[in-house]
Amino acid sequence: MAQVIHTTKADFAENFLYLNGQQLSLNDYPHLRAIYNSDAAESVYMFSRQTAKSTTLSNLMITNSVMYNYFKSLYISPTVDQTKVFSHDRVNPVLEGSPLVKEHYMNSSLVQNVFMKQLLNGSRMYLRYALLNADRIRGYSADMNIFDEVQDLREDIIPVIQETMSRSMFKWSLYAGTPKRSKGTLANIWDRSTKNEYILKCQACNHWNILGQDNIGDLGVICNKCGRSLDVKVGGEWVSTYSLTKKPTLEGFRVCLLHFDKAPWVDWEKDVLGKREKYSTSKYYNEVLAMEYDEGTSPITEADLIKNCRSEYIMSGEPNNLDTSYKSIMGIDYGPINSENSHTVITIMQKRGDRYHVLYLKKFLGKEADYAYIHKVIPELMEKWKVVHLAADYGMGEAPNSEIRSKVGYNKVIAFQHLPTQKEKIRWNPKMPAYTMNRNQVLNELFQEIKNGNMVLPRWDDFEPFKDDFLNVQMEFDEEKNSMKYISIGPDDAVHSTLFCKVALDLMHGIANFS
């Protein structure tokens, strides 16, 4: 007669899962047991490299699929290659190498491909990818969503993907990744969490340590107070470090390479001390210590924006005689209609002498986000502000651009598109038709004008709702290519609507450099 066995997920994984011919054991990594056994509906794992992140996600997905009949899990990474590696290198070896799973939950009649795994108890594991949108995820039904390398996912696609769990009785969400900056998808989720840290008590001086830079010794982990050796397998416990007034329901765990200092795959001299000498500070903090790092990543600061704001420039939406005496350009960056983060933004700008004047900004929210409404308002604003050209986003907005051309005139709409591989700063492509731009060069010039005080902005009270769009554009340095590029860590629509204005004004005034 069959017997029901009650067990924790960590115990199940250790008793029944195998990897590379070895039975899983967490005895050397006791800090991982709380992660396996967490009963939180939402969890975020902030892992450094080489710390069993992918193995943990795979084991949790398989454990849930075996323990619960007809359980459906959905794994999402940013790219198809990442999903394929996870499927081939993390999931397949455990399914094929674990005797219990292989003998009692699998047979040749089940689907076992890169993007789906079936078990005999009716459970299914879907593996997908979604870098910029969630279109290929729509239509699936899931009980658990696993978002891997979440630091590289767009935050606004997460709620869309979570709709796959709308009819589930479980509704479990796991977010995992390696930190970068203090702003971005992973950082924003981490900020809403309990921010659990695995603290270690020094057996020599009784000091409690949260592992970081000061715990790195010549041979291994040391106490950051007395400098004596710490055994990461002894005397550790998880504590919450959140600063919110109410304990979050989102459970967060930070795991760094120092927690694995005696793991067989870790070479302390090479992986900890060597990388400290070789890596930049930001990369070392991110990939070894699992800590966010911001220094030197922002091209402009909030202080730079405030410096450009003029207290007398009230953004009322109504132009005065001086405003209508200059030729204006309107820039528009289209956002998805149903997005909770990215929105359509317009900017109205003029060139007065050596300075650019931002006269009006508008973000279309709620019911106003519908393109039909936007295209009703734009002609009215263009007439009111005497706008001579609409500088529009070609990428997402070319279909909407066709509609707006029919309302304001074909020649009044100028389209722009970023091409990351283009060497020239600006180039006219008659086949599109649109101006293609080198993203780095045009953004660099925009931020330089702001740094130099040549971008006149409305008073701070009016401009502040748009400031995050400008601060969400940051610089990322690629050490291997020895190059810098601008990346977005959140909505940046106001930046691009303003950028399109600036480039169009430069073209109109004959000062754009096409080289």
Topology summary:
Elements (H helix, E strand, L loop, with lengths): L8 H8 L1 E2 L2 E2 L9 H5 L4 E6 L5 H15 L4 E6 L2 H18 L1 H6 L7 E2 L2 E3 L5 E6 L14 E4 L10 H5 L9 E6 L7 H7 L4 E6 L6 E3 L25 E5 L9 E6 L12 H11 L2 H7 L14 H7 L12 H4 L3 E6 L11 E8 L2 E9 L7 H14 L2 E7 L4 H11 L4 E6 L7 E4 L4 E4 L1 H13 L3 E2 L3 H4 L3 H5 L1 E6 L4 E6 L4 H16 L7
Q: What does the model show?
A:
The longest helix has 18 residues, at 80-97. It is globular, with a radius of gyration of 27 Å. Strand 15 and strand 16 form a beta hairpin. The chain is built from 17 helices and 23 strands. It has two domains: 27-287, 3-Layer(aba) Sandwich (Rossmann fold), CATH 3.40.50.300; 302-508, Nucleotidyltransferase, domain 5. Helix content is 30%, strand content 22%. Strands 5-6-7-4-8-9-3-13 form an eight-stranded mixed sheet, with helices on both faces. An eight-stranded mixed sheet has the order 19-20-18-17-14-15-16-21.
